[in-house]
Design goal:
34% of the residues lie in helices and 26% in strands. It is an alpha+beta fold. It binds flavin-adenine dinucleotide.
Amino acid sequence: MIPAEFEYVAPSTVEEAVQALDRAGDDAKVLAGGQSLLPVLRMRMADPGLVVDLGGIPEARGVREDGDTLVIGAMTSHHEVMRSELVRGHAELVALTTRTVADPQVRHRGTFGGSLAHADPAGDLLAPALAMDAEMVVAGPSGRRTVPAAEFFVDYFTTTLESNEVLVEVRIPKYTGWRAHYEKFNRVAQAWSVVGVAATVLVRDGVVARARVGLTNMGATPVRAHGVEQALVGSPPTEEAVRRAAAHATEGTQAGSDASAEADYREHLAEVLTGRALATAASG
Ligand code: FAD
């Protein structure tokens, strides 16, 4: 199908983008990589009068360091994220998860910020963002605010972003030296997760000193598996310790049923995939 007619602007600064969105009220949409928005427009599930393309805003693109923090511009493509030495060195979980997103075509167009702003519960990058305590830097008419990932994702396809706000960058504390793995179950190669588990651990002297685990598609928003983390920390990452920790995987989840899987199968997957993610991460 063909989208309904809309006006198109391509601002060169974040402030110009915010002004354009603010002027349009609720009648505008931000365009990032377009991998999710364009199908929505073509199916006429949305028909905004204005599309604000962030593609020409240099500030929103690229990966940099800011002291102990890694900063990923919202408009950085999945391809750039997974190839970035900085991401691989300080947020390996993000790089490994991004590798599982879709196919090379989608990864060249789709963006890190677009995935987070879209907030598809089956989207793979939400779980690592949550598990790693990422912070979203959001620009609006009255300036910028920082939103922790734990508060950013509100519901299915819903974040705290207002219609006149733009996600500018994502700030992630550095996880240098941590080991990581993203374990994803999907029915078709290169598709979204039926369930996914993002795990990163810091092993010191053969013992798990710290652990972070996030679950994909186990509810309307990504879920932080605090019970798993607490159960594993302080133990050597043996098969038995990993199995005991993974038994906590479904705590706080609200898995839904859909054409891909029933809720109880998702719960089974969450436990199995958590065990695999932890074992693989811990073994380095
Ligand atoms: P867009 O499509 O441009 O925007 C998506 C939404 O977010 C829109 O509502 C837009 O207004 C809003 N938005 C985007 N950027 C911002 C911003 N900076 N500030 C405010 N609002 C913003 N994803 C996965 O995680 N795993 C997969 O396996 C996977 N498989 C895919 C397979 C296919 C065939 C396709 C087409 C997509 C797939 N995706 C998958 C989705 C892909 O990762 C998209 O890149 C992502 O969903 C949206 O990113 P985008 O940059 O294309 O955003």
